[in-house]
Design goal:
Number of domains: 1
Number of helices: 7
Largest sheet: 6 strands, parallel
Strand content: 15-25%
Number of strands: 10
Helix content: 25-40%
Strand order of the largest sheet: 2-1-5-6-9-10
Order of helices and strands: HEHHEEEHEHEHEEEEH
CATH architecture: 3-Layer(aba) Sandwich
Shape: globular
Length: 302
């Protein structure tokens, strides 16, 4: 009897998802309705053990409330906000027995972004687009901005953008998609090197010309007692290269190095990293309000 109960218990554990995905509470992207004032696209990164990436990657920025933390800043400023979160995978949709529900990957993001560009962004007063990425997710979003040079991005937020295992994780999935990218650079090139102002810079560290502002967070380099967002005293992975423009300047770019948070901890809504991002985003929202007021004086009615 004891053996039978143990067998049943192990079977139940094996069927339980490692990750229970919760939807963001901010209104979801609704391309069938009227445009909001702000659209935030977020892309999460590589999942940690015992999961198997990219099969088990999931939208943790949306699930754990990080996406909502950023959205709340713009909502508090009086803007109507819609959000859409994605998991680090080349496919449009994918699922795993370890994830509680199907996930949407880069191909879904690319499709949604293109639809927004072809519809809402053609309006007289289009929504402001915001990109929020962590780890590999930041790499996907820099590539997205690169291959859509005529789509303005009001703000990009990078949380420790990392290229670790990029081609080994996504090479097969990208190749399986065949010619969907047409003439645009393949995501396999998202971690390629560029020469910027005489030095070598990774594509993930370039803030492309269509991106107005960039907030970059990097996790701690030295051992330190973890903060309220958890993590380890010693960081296992961190970004060190500062983001730059194609001309080598840092125009419109601000950087914060979190002295007590590791690579994972900076992605939580209660982190020092998100407190810094939220503070900067609030100031940016005030700038937007001033811009909107000027436009309203020129042409009333939004």
């Amino acid at each position: 009897m004891t053996v039978l109960l143990l067998t049943l218990l192990l079977g139940l554990v094996a069927c339980t998802p490692l990750y229970v995905v919760h939807p963001a509470r901010t209104p979801a992207l609704n391309l069938q309705g009227p445009p909001p004032d702000v659209v935030i696209f977020s892309m999460s990164g590589r999942c940690g053990p015992p999961c198997l990436a990219p099969r088990d990657n999931w939208d943790y920025l949306g699930s754990r409330g990080t996406l909502d933390r950023l959205a709340d800043v713009f909502t508090a400023a009086g803007y109507r906000v819609q959000v859409s979160g994605y998991a680090s995978n080349a496919a449009a949709t994918f699922s795993s027995e370890y994830i509680g529900g199907p996930q949407r990957g880069y191909e879904a993001l690319r499709s949604d972004f293109a639809r927004v560009a072809q519809t809402w962004m053609k309006a007289a007063r289009p929504p402001r687009l915001v990109l929020l990425g962590h780890s590999q997710g930041s790499v996907w979003l820099h590539h997205l901005a690169r291959v859509h040079p005529y789509v303005p991005v009001a703000l990009q937020v990078d949380l420790d953008g990392i290229c670790v295992a990029w081609k080994s994780d996504f090479g097969e999935g990208i190749r399986e998609l065949g010619s969907v990218y047409g003439d645009e650079p393949s995501p396999l090139q998202a971690c390629d090197a560029f020469t910027v102002a005489g030095r070598t810079v990774g594509a993930k560290d370039i803030v492309w010309p269509n991106v107005a502002l960039d907030l970059e967070v990097q996790s701690k380099r030295l051992p330190a007692r973890p903060g309220v967002s958890g993590g380890w005293p010693v960081n296992y992975l961190f970004e060190v290269t500062p983001n730059v423009r194609l001309d080598g300047t840092r125009t419109g770019i601000e950087r914060f190095i979190s002295s007590r948070e590791d690579h994972s901890a900076i992605s939580f809504p209660n982190s020092d990293a998100l407190a810094w991002v939220a503070g900067k985003a609030a100031a940016i929202a005030q700038q937007w309000q001033a811009e909107d007021a000027r436009l309203d004086r020129i042409k009333p009615g939004r």
